[in-house]
Design brief:
alpha+beta; PH-domain like; 5 helices; 7 strands; single chain; elongated; 2 domains
């Protein structure tokens, strides 16, 4: 078992994102008020008042978000085990989420613009229930060594599948010639049956 935690720079990323969002909300909310105020009275006094009100409301969520970022960051931890990945998170309510290897269908390493700037990455784990969607079961965020964690999970996943199913379903293990021949024979038999039944179905 190996344990990982997000890098300290992930906390900086949280603070930066929250600040950018707060500034964007302030601009988007106050700009229309500025335009309306100038059109109606030709004065910026009303717009300034509106901007101050919007700023005060913006601060009401921004300050708690900034304060809660540090405890949330400290609560995050990941464990790569022999049969599953465990993600722990939460401030008030502590959650422990298990992702069994038997349900994993895809692994990806994701690095956004801020992640590349900060030298971080995210390992996304997709399971059978999330296949065909853009959603992921769990994300291991804020990793400085995201590629290393990805490769470890891949190795554990292959080892687990090799142990549990003796190689069946492992994309690195080619099917034997006998297996392929048996599958081909079965497909041909199904096709003959369908061809024989087709005229009667159309009659």
């Amino acid at each position: 078992m190996k344990s990982y935690k997000p890098h300290r720079r992930y906390l900086s990323k949280l603070w930066l994102v929250e600040t950018i969002v707060a500034v964007l909300i302030l601009i988007v909310a106050a700009l229309p008020m500025l335009i309306v105020s100038l059109e109606r009275s030709g004065s910026m006094r009303g717009a300034v008042i509106a901007w101050i009100v919007c700023g005060a409301l913006d601060v009401l969520w921004w300050v708690p978000a900034m304060l809660l970022s540090a405890p949330y960051y400290r609560s995050l931890s990941y464990e790569i085990r022999e049969e599953e990945v465990i993600v722990r998170a939460g401030i008030v309510t502590r959650s422990v989420k298990l992702v069994p290897y038997r349900t994993v269908t895809n692994l990806t390493v994701k690095r956004g613009l801020l992640d590349r700037w900060l030298g971080l990455g995210t390992v996304d784990i997709q399971t059978a229930g999330m296949s065909g969607t853009n959603n992921v079961e769990q994300s291991l965020v804020g990793l400085e060594n995201a590629q290393e964690v990805y490769e470890l999970v891949v190795r554990e996943l292959r080892r687990f599948r090799g142990t549990a199913t003796e190689g069946v379903g492992d994309t690195d293990v080619p099917a034997s010639a006998d297996t392929l021949t048996a599958i081909l024979a079965e497909v041909r038999a199904i096709r003959r049956t369908l061809d024989e039944e087709s005229p009667r179905g159309g009659a």
